[in-house]
Amino acid sequence: MKKEYSLFLMSLIVILLAACGNGESDEVSAESEEKTKIEYWHVNAETQGGNTVDQLVEEFNAQSDTVEVVARYNPDMYAGLMSNMQAEVASGNSPAVVQVGWAFLDYFSENFEYVEPQEVIENYHEEDVTFLEDNFLPNILELGQNAEGTQVGIPYSLSNPILYINKDMLQEAGLDSEGPETWEEVREYSEAINKATGNYGVYIQEPADSWGQQAMVECNGASFIDDGKASFASDEGIEVFQYYQDLVNDELALHIGWDQGIQSFIDGNVGMLYTTIAQRNNIESNASFDVTTLQSPTWEGKEKRVPAGGAMLSITAQDEEEQAAAWEFMKYLYSVESIAEWTKGTGYVPPREGVSDSEEGLKSFLEENELMIPAIEQMDSMVPWASFPGDSGIEAEQKLLDMRDIILGGDVDVEETVSNTEEEINDLLE
Amino acid sequence: MKISHYFWHILIIVFIIIAIYPILFAVSNSFKHLNDAFTSTINLIPNPFTFENYQRLHETIPLLKITLNTFVIASIITAFKIVTSFLAAYALTYFNFRFKKTTYFLLISTIFIPFTVTMIPNYLIISHFNLIDSVWGVILPQLADAIGIFMLTQAMRNIPKPLIEAAQIDNISTFNIMKDHVLPIVRPALTSTAIWFFILAWNDYVWPLLMLRSRDSYTLPLALQLFVSSEGGTNFTVAMALSVITMAIPLILYLIFQRYIINTFSSSGIK
C-alpha cells in the first residue's frame, strides 16, 4: 500500500511540474514579440467551419508584422457569445472583433460599446476608405444597420433559405424536375408526390426561431415587423399561415423538429425541404439520391424577399491601437481569397462582390458545387432578419414559436390565433 | 424464499441494464458512420465498424493537450481540496479556540451559496490577476471546498476522543497524531471525497468555459461543444467518440487504483 501512495505522490509532482512548464512557455512567447494582441470571438463549431476560422487566423498571424489574433470559440451560438461578452465587459476588458447574429443586432447595439467600421477605417486606414461601398451590395450592408441606421457591423456569415429537391422522387411522381417556383406550385407538387409515393411532399424548417416563416410572409408582400411593431396579422400574413396549416392538415407537409425534418429528407421520406443554405454540405454528403436546389419559392406574382441568416463582424476594441489592428484583421477576412475559404468551410454565401466569379475566389468551386448557386443568385432579394426590439424581444419571439405550434397542431382558427398573437406581442413591446 | 431471490436478481439486472445502456450506446455510436447512427439507432453493433470518428478528433483538435489540461486541472483541484479539507477538519475537531462553532457554521454555510452568485466576482478577480485563458485561472477559486471539510469533520467526530487524548499524553506531536492515528481511520472518507472532487472537476463546464479561450487550453467537456451546433448541424458520432474518451479516463484511473480504493473501504474501523 505504501508503494501505491508514493506512486500517487510522484504522479502529482509530475503533474505540477508539467503545469508550471506550461506557464513558463507562455511567458516566453509573449515576450518575444511586440505585436498588438487582439481577440476574435466566434461561434463556429467544428461542423460549422471551426477549422476554417483557425486556419484563417493562423495565416493572418503569419503574414502580419503588427497584429497577433487569438480566436475564441463560444458555444451555444450567438446567445452564448452575448453572455460571455457580458462577463468580459464587466471585468473591464473586451475582445476586438466579435460575431453578432442578426437576431441580436438591436440587443448588441443597445447594450455594448462598439465603433462603426467606417469610422475606424477613416481614422487609421485611409487607403481603405471606399472598401465597403466598393465591395458590398447596398442591401447587404443594410443588414448590419440598426434601427437608427448606424452601421453596427459588416455582414460576414450570410445564409438564406432555399428549396432542396429530391429529384428521384419528383421523377417517380412524374413531375417536371425543374421544380416549383411558387408556394402554390409547392402544394401542387406535394399533392403529386403524396399520391405517387405516399411520402410527405415538403418539410418547412421548424427550429427555435421563425426565420422560415418570416421568409414565407415576406414573399407574400407582407412584413413581420413594421416600425418596431409586430405586423404579421395582415391579410397576406394570415393567408400564409392558413396555407401552412392546410399543408400539414392534409398530410402534405411534415410537422416535426428541425434535425428530424432534415433527416427525414435525407432518408427519402420527404420530397422537398425548405431550409437554410448552411445545411447544404450536411445534406449533400449524406443523401443517397439525386439532390438539387432551387431559389426560395415566392407567391404567384409577388416579389421575392428572403431574410438573411448568419452574423456580422463588429469592432468592440476600445483603445486606438486595437481598433486599428481590428480592421487590419477584418480586411484580411474580407479579402476574396479568405471569403472563398470561409464559404467552402461553412456553406454560407459570400457576403461581398467579386468572389463567385473570380478565379482566386470560388469560380471553380461553384462549378463543382452547383447547389450553392441559387442562394448566391437570390442575394439581391435579401432583407433583414426580423428581431423584436427591447427587453421583451425574447419573450415575443417565444410567442411566435408557440403560435406556430398551435396552428400546425390542428384545427384552430388561423385568423383568430394570428391576430391574438400579434396583439399579445404588441402589448409586450409597449 | 426462492421466488423473492429471483425477483431481486431480475430487478438488479434491470437496473444494471438501465445504468449501462447509455454507455454502450455512446461506445457503439462512436464506431458508427453518421448515416448508420441515424438509420439503425437501436442496433448497438456498428455496421460497418469504423475508426473515422476518433481519427477526425485526432485531426481537428489537440486531443492530447486537451486531455492533459483536464487531468492537470482535476488533479490539482482534488489534491488541494483534500489537503485543505483534512487540515481544516482536524483543527475544527480537535483544537479548541474562540469562535470555533461560529467558524464551522460560517464555513459550512458557504455550501449553500450557489456557484452562479460567486461566478462574476470570481471572474473579476481572476481577470485582475491576468490569469484568464490559463489553467491556473480555472484552478485558483477551487482550492478549498466546505463540503470536504464537512465530510471529514463527520468522519473525525466518530473517532473516540480517548484515542487522541492518549496520544497527546504520550507526547506525540500533532503532526504525528494526524499522520499515524487520524489519517488511517478517515482514509475511506478521504478517498471517497477525493473521487467525488475529481469527477466534479473533470466534468466541470461553466467555469472553465468562462476562463478558457484558446483551443490549446481547453478541457474535454469544452471540446465536446465544438461538435455540437444548431446551424451547422451536430456531428453525433464524433461527439460520441469524444464522450467515450471523456468518461474512459476516470474509469481507467479507477480500475488502476481500484484495489487500493477497495482496501481502504474494507479496512475502516478502529484497530
Automatic annotation (TrEMBL), chain A:
* InterPro entries documented for this protein: Bact_solute-bd_prot1, SBP
- Which PROSITE patterns has this protein been placed in? PROKAR_LIPOPROTEIN (PS51257)
Give the superkingdom in one word.
Bacteria
Which CDD domains does this entry report, sorted A to Z?
Answer: PBP2_UgpB (cd14748)
* Key words, A-Z: Signal, Transport
Q: GO cellular-component terms in the record? A: cell envelope
- Places the protein is found: Cell envelope
Keyword Transport annotated: yes
Q: Which residues form the signal peptide?
A: 1-18
Q: Name one Pfam family in it.
A: SBP_bac_8
The similarity comment for this entry is: Belongs to the bacterial solute-binding protein 1 family.
What is the name listed in the Swiss-Prot or TrEMBL entry for this protein? sn-glycerol-3-phosphate-binding periplasmic protein UgpB
Query: What is the protein's species of origin?
Result: Jeotgalicoccus meleagridis
Q: Upper lineage ranks?
A: Bacteria, Bacillati, Bacillota, Bacilli, Bacillales
From TrEMBL, chain B:
Q: Which InterPro entries match?
A: MetI-like, MetI-like_sf
Q: This protein's superkingdom?
A: Bacteria
As for subcellular location, the record says:
Cell membrane
What are the alphabetically sorted keywords of the record? Cell membrane, Ion transport, Membrane, Nickel, Nickel transport, Transmembrane, Transmembrane helix, Transport
Q: Name one GO biological process term.
A: nickel cation transport
State the membrane topology.
Answer: Multi-pass membrane protein
Q: Residues in domain ABC transmembrane type-1? A: 67-257
The membrane-spanning stretches of this chain are 7-27, 71-92, 104-125, 131-152, 185-202, 236-257
- GO cellular component annotations of the record: plasma membrane
Task: Report the sequence similarity comment from the record.
Answer: Belongs to the binding-protein-dependent transport system permease family.
What is the protein's name according to its record? L-arabinose transport system permease protein AraQ
Primary gene name: araQ
